[in-house]
Amino acid sequence: MKKIILVCMLACLMVACGGEEKKLFQQAQLKASEGNYVQAIDIYSRLLKKNPQHSAALTNRGILWERIPVKDAAEKRRNREYAEQDYLKAIEINPNQPETYNNLGALYLDTRQYSDAVYYFTQALAYRPDYFTARMNRAIAYSNLGQFGSSLNDFSEAIALHPMDPLVYLNRGLAYFNMSRYESAASDFSRVIALNPEDARAYVERARAFVRLGYPSDAFVDLQEAVTLKPTYAIAYYYMGDLLFRKGDKEQAFGHLIRAKELASQYVPTYDLMGDMLALEDPVAAASNYMVAAKLDPDHASQYRRKMELLRTEEGREQIMSQRFFAR
To answer: What's this model's pTM, rounded to 2 decimal places?
Structure first.
């Protein structure tokens, strides 16, 4: 299931404060606006040493912990923990600030803690029922929980607030797709394109819906439009390769997947797909692709090892092909 796009907009706070605290707050905001997140965090920390109850400084520092560049996944987890602590402390000090609830909910949404995300978005909406970003984010969280009725209700509320925002329709389209309501999904993606014809993502998503509806030719046209708008769009090449292989154009299919690898060498599905495509004709090359996929995606390494085991026999190789290309 493809992950719903995250809105997760984080709201910085501006407050009135006096003397040196005001000066430090403004300096931190300036550094943050310049992209100097480390310096901004340091200034907010100095401010908080002087006044640990400064909720706006806590909220803004939390945002910066999420934005600061990291060298690995462990550092990213650590920074998210710092952000979570700052948001929780800010809420404890000032429980009437909806932006902080939204920011904490967005953090939980991004870390797939969907029930917690719903709770904090609901708190934000209790203080501000017309809070568009929180409404959209809660719709996404509900969708990821499989609570599609609540999700669609929130999307409807969000559309009522901002009926011309293409992002609402994109997200609702993705929710419809995950509900297997492909016609509704395609309709929403078409609305995105009408509102923003330059949105390459919308063409890719509509192509995915068209494939499920049995319109591969229309899907391919949309994917071609996506790469015209965004020539470096690796995922579009990935889907084009899949469609071309199913059509029997193997040479073109492999060419598109090689291009997808060049553009996004860390995108695991490309290696998985190429492995499946090669299973019958070149099991050694197929195994090489599965090995890369397992290395890039250790959480699912067992499924790639299983495919490598299947490559040992002709029956197993046929099973790989049938599961990918003939199971619908």
So the answer is: 0.85
